[in-house]
Amino acid sequence: MHGYCRLSRDEDKENYSSIEEQKRIIKDYAFTRNWIIDDKDFYIDDNVSGYTFNRPEFTKMLEKVKVGKIDVVIAKDLSRIGRNNGKVLVLIDEFKNMQKNMIFVSEMCGTYDVQNDRDDTIGITTWFNERYVKDCSRKTRDHMYSKQKTARLIMGNYYGYEKVFEDRIPMLYIIEELKPVVELIFKLYVEERMGFQRISQELNTKYNYPTPSEYYREKHLERGRIYKHKVQEKWTKDMVSNILKNEVYTGTLVTHKKRTVNIRGRAVKLPKEEHFVFENHHEAIISNEIFDLAQEIRTKKLKQNTSSTNKKRNYFFSGMCICSECDSGMSGIMLKRKVTEKGYDCSRYRQFGTKACHCHEVKERDILNHLKEYLKFTKQQYLKEIKNIKIEINQNKNNNNKFKMQNKLNILNEEYKLLVSQKIKEIASANNEMAREIIENTYKELEKEKIQNISYIQELLEKDEKKNLEQRANKLKTSIDYFDDVINSEVPNKIILQMIIDKIYIDRDKTIIVKLKTDINKMI
Fold first, then answer.
1. Domains, the chain, with CATH or none
2. Percentage of residues in the chain having pLDDT higher than 70
């Protein structure tokens, strides 16, 4: 004679009772039958969903039933055994075939005995039990979807950021001691061109930064909690890869990346068009330019100076030059004139001859000079924009902080209107002058508090606009710094070239057209 109890976190504990209450119900029933069930005779799964049958204590109990060590199992009701309609019905048939018994104390307006009762409605009961858990799952998914849509749900942890709840809304704040780790990983990947494995080796041998799991374990211990996940004390290439591909480090939060299709099922990745993107959600650790370049290196697998010849000669614009005639890449070559120097020519022409394209060799020096002149012109445009920048800016709907403040201001204004309206109604219905005076004084304090809150939010919004203006100007200034670096150098930095140049088109007449990664309109 053994008892089974189960309770999951998402169930209504008032209706399904606590574990102790389930044990009491089972013991009371056993006592009326002169059966004895001690605490050691119970199998208990606490905080485990009934939809899955892969439960530790439940599995252990079934194994003993199958080998004949347990003849009778008593539970409060069918839903404690499980909420998967088909699996529960199969289990009941198995118990009947094994001549074992299951008794449900509070089921179908009484007690249900698997071996002795014949109730044709048992399938309806198990169906309702499954319907309950599916309904809970749907409501949970809907609730999560709503919170993800408004950035009120941040799943998991992000190494380098601390999650802090403000008015029940999660916000991310930089952990200063971890900020250098993230910056170093991007620097080694983008500037030093190290791979994931090499970066992890550098972190393990030359630095003493904690791995993500080490840091989270330490924080759990500080709070008196147990960290249940596996702790990896060495940096791995997967850890490095996860940091390099996460846009959270640019201050952008992306939610609704995955969704579970079935209860307890695997989460499936969602296409990018279904993601919710909140730019300027929190303070960035990495600039958008560095992050974008890292993704370009990652996804397009750019290999600087791939051949041994290119590595030796170090072509500045390898991977950037495009033939305007056939859209093929331009190969780095050595032009043999009076003075041998580096240049480029159409790769299709060099491989297949005039049947595929035409020769239009161009000197690397000419491309560099043209680029410098073009950057000087663009720089002047940027300087004019900084000088003439206006105070008002278009509201960025993805700016989550501003959006929340504006929404809060709208709510406060509506609450203030309702407060005034309610005061007028109560004063109008007052019986005497004293009552009206009491109502007036009472509402005066409430109105004062509401007006102060409205003024405070308005002030924050004004500061936020100023901050956006400064950020916009700083972004332009940063671009100008990159331009100056190229303009003033004899040997330009390849990393900076890749950050600012999208493509360089060269036609048969050797006309050079430079396309920057972001034009002035997008920058502003």
1. 2-139 (3.40.50.1390), 150-299 (3.90.1750.20), 307-524 (no CATH)
2. 82
